[in-house]
# Entry
Amino acid sequence: MEEGTKGDYKVSRGIGSFKSTLSGRSSPRSSPSFKRLHSSRTPRREARSSGGVQWFRSNRLLFWLLLITLWAYLGFYFQSSWAHSNNKVNFLGVGNEASNDKSDAEQNQRRDLLDSPVKLKNETGQNQPEAGKTIDVVLAKKDDGVASRRSLSSKKKSMKAARGKSRGKPKKTVAIAIHEIEEQEPDIPKTNASYGMLVGPFGSTEDRILEWNPKTRTGTCDRKGDFARLVWSRRFLLIFHELSMTGAPLSMMELATELLSCGATVSAVVLSKKGGLMPELTRRRIKVLEDKADHSFKTAMKQDLVIAGSAVCASWIDQYIDKFPAGASQIAWWIMENRREYFDRAKVVLDRVKMLAFLSESQSKQWLDWCEEEKIKLRSQPAIVPLSINDELAFVAGIGCSLNTPSSSTEKMLEKMKSLRDAVRKEMGLTDNDTLVISLSSINPGKGQLLVLNSVCLVIEEEPQPDNSKIKNSVRKGRVRSALARKHHIRALLQGSNDHSASLNGFPLSTESSVHFKEDQKKHLHLHNRFASVDDTDAMNFDVTHKRKVLADNGGTVKQSAKFLIGSVGSKSNKVAYVKELLSYLSQHSNLSKSVLWTPSTTRVAALYSAADVYVMNSQGLGETFGRVTIEAMAFGLPVLGTDAGGTKEIVDHNVTGLLHPLGHPGTQVLAKNLRLLLKNPELRKQMGLKGREKVERMYLKRHMYKKFVDVLLKCMRPK
# Structure
């Protein structure tokens, strides 16, 4: 028995050694303790754990097929990405985000050129094509090596349905690009040789006198207002039609600044970059999207509200809604034009946007009448959101705003504004007897600058006529008195020939005059020439000062002469042909040209308003849509002479805050009459200016505009 057990024990040890947890002895497999200790190691689990490895070992062929398939898929994926990527150097996605916008813009530009034939000119003069022939140009990006074709890329990027929708869109883009190129006329050099008298800008003078850093000119948001609560943490996309220093772009820029200061996220799309506002947008940290097509559309879909700031934005809105129809419900269209040509451009999408906003009641009524004629039914009732003066101008004008501090109260700013007025007028070469009439806007026929020059010419050329006889008589009397003075002087010299010196009227005489009579005669002739030259100078000075100081018909009071300042020279919205017409008119009227000043286009207009005495708004056609410069001039206490039409009629109260005149040539006589009235009555100018300033404080400050903007936001902005 013992040998059997020992033999069994040896056999079991040969199979494997097992250790007991308590006694150190090994237990047989059939014992309960062995089964209890090793219950987790079942044959099924052992087979299951090693089955996957055995399956791959037994099916190596299938395994390699899967690897080959995966490798082929990755190869085709990266090859396709490289073929369709805009930056083939970084086709894996590294460093490609920054160049997406530029590449999209370049593609759009190349597509426009591909759609239209281009005439080539050989710069060397050799192998020139025959006249009248056009050559189709295929443009290729640098380092591509392959010409880009719109048909090939569209087939690979889009489906047939989307491709069918996008076929008509590039035509609109091409039309807009051609329109922009046509408007970019060669500008006239901004020199005195071109314009006669070019003054300003006076930004450095403002900074020196106002003691105000331009970097602080951003304004602050009223955190307690409804507008701030609505836009906090919201996302907005603003559409600029251009970047000129005119009403619509400036208003959109200030809206973007206010949204940013109230805690919103703002992006901007600029349809035309002509103008000088891009540095100002950068300074105010307004993000401008380089791409105004697909990328801007995708960005717009992520926003809470899209605000378009001009009727010219119709092309962008049309393309955006065609691509994303649901996006029409989040567009607020702030239209700032009031001419039929802008309505015809915008009528295609007027009934598709969520809401329209206008600047004045007259503009809203006019557009609704046009919609009724064209049988266009709007989705909602339009809103009226008039413009306002910004905090920067209100601050300089001495009107309470968010920029006021204890050290820069309204009383102190009024004192600084007077100092600014004196400094700017001195730089312009004006005296206290000069009345400065200004008109700041783009120079084109719609603004009516030529008609204003006609009126100013009537005022200036009629001033010397009633007193011509007095001028001649006074000069003759002065010459007679000078002749008598010379005779008395000669007699005094003859009587005092023994004197070593003599004087008359403050002019010392040489002691050599008493030496000999002949020498005295020479001396007399010399003095005669001196007095003659002095008399002539006095007559000339009298004639010049008479142009500045003209005696009134009654009372002998001094009437101030008119100086007219035109802005804005160099603006991208100017019509060069019209500017040349103005210069030609001035060359034909020499007296008028001496009284006309010019100033460059600038956003620093506080100095100009401070130096002025009267403002003229002479917009023609249907009149000015609103007239932002009108309320700015009123804020600085200037009476306004405006046309009896459009928004000017709503802003200017006749005989209260200014005077109105008819449109067109009939209005030139009335405007000249109104100018004469204000030139003769400084107190009337002051009274009208104070009334206009009160109206601005009552209706046209920033808080008034954004209070009306709240209604637009509530109706258009998607809820959180």
